[in-house]
Amino acid sequence: MTEATTRRTPGTPCWVSLMVHGLAATEEFYGALFGWEFEPGPQQLGPYVRGLLDGKEIAGIGQLPPDRHLPIAWLTYLATDNADLTAETIRSCGGTVGVGPLDAASAGRMAIAADPAGAVFGIWQAAAHTGTAVAGAHGTPVWNELITRETSSVDTFYKALFGYDVEAVVSADLDFLTLRLRGRPVASLHGVGRALTRDRGAHWMTYFEVADTDAAARLVTELGGQVLQQPREGANGRHATVADPEGAVFTIVRSAGR
After folding, report:
1. To pair with 53 at 20 to 30 A between CA atoms, which of 6, 117, 157, 214?
2. Is 130 helix (H, G, I), strand (E, B) or coil?
3. pLDDT tens, residue by residue, 97-131
4. Do residues 217 and 240 touch, judged by C-beta distance below 8 A?
5. Which residues, at least 6 apart from 111, have a Cβ–Cβ distance to it below 8 Å?
6. pLDDT tens, 52-80?
7. Residues 124 and 163: beta-carbon distance below 8 Å
8. Which of 235, 215, 247 is nearest to 34 (CA)?
9. By the 8 A CB rule, do 48 and 198 touch?
10. Which of 205, 256, 246 is nearest to 229 (CA)?
11. How far apart are alpha carbons 258 and 236 in whole angstroms?
């Protein structure tokens, strides 16, 4: 386990959060799966808790109002030094801003937006809360990937937004870009063509580190979730795509080299 840097370069994924209907049941699921404990967070948008490992903040979970029937999905936040300016850039580059920018008490300033293909993401201007505080341990976010129809429709948007350097995988049958900041890979864009399901559309996927992918996948099922893609080997480690009991999809991975 390593503590993450306190201030992220703009454009770096820095936090993930989830809005659900059953907050207590969701706490129980992720507590059992990842070993998280919970403490209250900012309440501007309703009941909200932060998941912790050894007292360090990992991710956020909020409760939707009973009459709100939004897709249940993990939300990736990208760091910014100026949420208002980034929101304006999103609009000018063909994206939309659905929430904010607004202050989250003393924690920071945030907005929720969507890229031109409709993938929803957050932006976070840190104040007291700088984002996920631990990296590398079981139950921590390890990677974020945009799943979209084709990367050519959105790579210009993200490059204009945060000045990413883009590295393409040269392949006739793979549409994959790695986003780099200051020479370091921070996220990826994956074009999947017709494999993109209509019900989900373009979306950001969060990868969580686990000690044992197969054991974690079995535990997901035991806790009432689903395994959508069975554990398999990949370039970055053994991974599986799963969903929690409310349907939020995420990937569990035992990173190569662990």
Report:
1. 214
2. coil
3. 999 999 988 999 999 999 999 999 999 999 999 99
4. yes
5. 83, 86, 87, 97, 99, 100, 101, 102, 122, 123
6. 999 999 999 999 988 888 889 999 999 99
7. no
8. 215
9. no
10. 205
11. 11
